[in-house]
Amino acid sequence: MPKKLKNLPSNGEENNQPSVSYAAKDIYVLEGLEPVRKRPGMYIGSTSVDGLHHLIWEVFDNSLDEAMAGFAKNIKIELFKNNKIAVTDDGRGIPVDIHPQTKKSALETVMTTLHAGGKFGGDSYKISGGLHGVGVSVVNALSKLIRVEVCKNGTAYAQEYERGKPKTSVKKIGKCVKNGTKVIFEPDPEIFQKIEFSRKTIIDHLRQQAFLTKGVRIDIADYHEEIPFTYTFYFEGGLISFVKYLNRNHKPIHKDIFYVDKTHDEIRVETAFIYNDDNEIRENSFANNIHTPDGGMHITGFRTALTRILNDYARSNNYLKGSEDNLTGDDVREGLTVIVSVGLREPQFEGQTKARLGTPSARTAVETVISEALKEFLEKHSVDAKAIVEKCLLAQKARKAAKAAKDIVLRKGALEGMTLPGKLADCSSRNAEESEMFIVEGDSAGGSAKQGRDRKFQAILPLRGKILNVEKARLDKMLLNNEIKSLIIALGTAIGDSFDISKLRYNKVIIMTDADTDGAHIRTLLLTLFYRYFRPVIENNHLCIAQPPLYRIQSGKEVKYAYSDKQKEIIVAEINKSRAANRKARQAEENKEEETAGDKRITINIQRYKGLGEMNPSQLWETTMNPEFRTLKLVAIEDAQEADRLFEILMSDQVEPRKQFIQSKATLVKNLDI
After folding, report:
1. CA dihedral 136, 140, 141, 142 (to 10 degrees)
2. Catalytic residue positions?
3. Within a domain: residue 21?
């Protein structure tokens, strides 16, 4: 028998606790779309700029589902000055007849009821995207105003809503020619922190969707400027066009792009890939047109098939001898640009953000389709097959050389007890949470930083000259560079397949370089190194950039620092204003019209810093290293694909893309050192 609980307070009055009612009347039931307005983040992720754009994606996804089902060929997105967005398609049009369960128009049911739509059963949509099928009703709930116009069988209908509730009934508004749906909505300023749409974000998303849905025309029109901005996407090539676009700044090693589009067990598998002459792996995966940045079962199936088939081909053609020489997954994916897209009826995503596909059958379908198609591709394209296998063998050779070099670096660190290289001045604290390391350019700045730092928690690693550009070098060559070896040992995380972020010795790794072009170049080289080989350091918010002042401004005994030209102008203006006010006060007091001798002697002295070495230790501490006053820029990866593209343009050995980038940005350059 369970023990009886004694002295249990019955109403909260005991133990001096206030009496709180908790009965049936205290259970709140949110009806209709109230839950969405109450907790919008649960449905669109956030009320920031990402959530704002998610409204467009949800309405657009409905139109795209019509296109994927074969009923729509044209979709148009319009951006108006009054924060209104219109999405129009030429699909079948949302039904307007009475729904048998709700006894309301099917249009009103879809717009005002969560989990109501054609994606939850039947054959209306065999494949669909959207946010768990709640899309357009969530947009309705989070919009100040929304109007839906439907053309169906020659008759035009319309209905308007305000914050999720119908303002009008579904009405006939005239005749029309083509079936379709138009949704015009205005996001609710009561919900969103700021209503400001990004044209670039919208264009990038629509371009991606157009690649994934070949043969569908997607138009965008932005009316915010005097001359409207218009753009159109239409790709007959689908994923082949997508691969060419992603590969536009790279040199392929073979002529023909691998492509397959087949269905296995009711799962559509569409994949395209090509190999380049660089070392990076570029994998892009989608499920029902939804980007899955963390991959999932479809990517696992692709990798398994790719590794097995290339090993089989290499062995049958005498490229490989013993079993110990098998190509690994990393070997066969080096230099690969691939897109894996699957379409399935009921995808299982891991997490609300759908970052990873968890449907097991997707792995089987992709592995089966890729295995058959790749085997056929290699047999038909022998020249391409040879280039691919030789690329994989080169990657294998480099991997073995890199392992040997890495072992030497790690062994050297172990023999030294992982004490940092002699050039590094470590902090006394062994608590990584409170420790930080400054990577400093040159011995001069390193000397000032070592003298000015707080030795308890700040470590200084001075670098000599510019480190190796890792975008142009393999790991084995990179590990021969003394500066990089010192940095690896100092961080404590190791590198490559031995990398372990939990062993990072510092909570903050701070890049501190001069405020000139050389300093910017060194900073870019270091950012390339961290992005390519220590990305978790960035992703876990450990990498920062120090912001040293550009100017030292002195007026009399008063000294101020400016971190930009604009700030310098503001400080100088404030000093002049203060001096004028003081002079006026003294003149009024002494009844004098002329300036005093003291006023003439006080001038503003402005010093432009070009290097950290120009600052003495106390100035460097005060302006750049003291946590109480310094400014640090956190390095974050907002768009990994765009970041990858920019690093390749700026740091690879391909000259033409870099030349074009510099020419396009030339007018934006300021304060170029001569």
Report:
1. 100
2. 441, 514, 516, 518
3. no
